[in-house]
Write a structure and sequence with these properties.
alpha/beta; flat
Length: 106
């Protein structure tokens, strides 16, 4: 849980240090600010990532939408391939994050 809290603090510091966040927009959103939408945070991993999405979701504020996809026993290559196949990530923008926690099974 301590590392999850550190991650949250780093993420909040990153957002506060963004230069002109309201200037970045997605073509599909027109003039709507990219930062007015929730930030997507996806945790993709092997068994080392179990419940991390749950902990982050409970620690982060309402500006975040947290997803978790865990494949027990999967090597890094399998997890990254599964991420690439997922349609959800095609809509991710610069403000969104994908975190891979894997490699234990390689």
């Amino acid at each position: 849980l301590n590392s999850a809290q550190n991650f949250v603090q780093m993420k909040q510091a990153f957002i506060l240090n963004q230069k002109n966040p309201n200037k970045e927009t997605s073509p599909s959103e027109g003039n709507k600010s990219e930062f007015s939408e929730k930030i997507n945070l996806s945790i993709e991993g092997d068994s080392q990532g179990i419940r991390l999405g749950y902990y982050l979701d409970s620690l982060l504020n309402n500006n975040y939408r947290v997803y978790g996809h865990i494949q027990n026993g999967a090597p890094l290559e399998e997890i990254t391939r599964a991420t690439a196949r997922d349609v959800q990530y095609k809509s991710y923008m610069k403000k969104d994050y994908i975190v891979w926690i894997a490699g234990t099974n390689n």
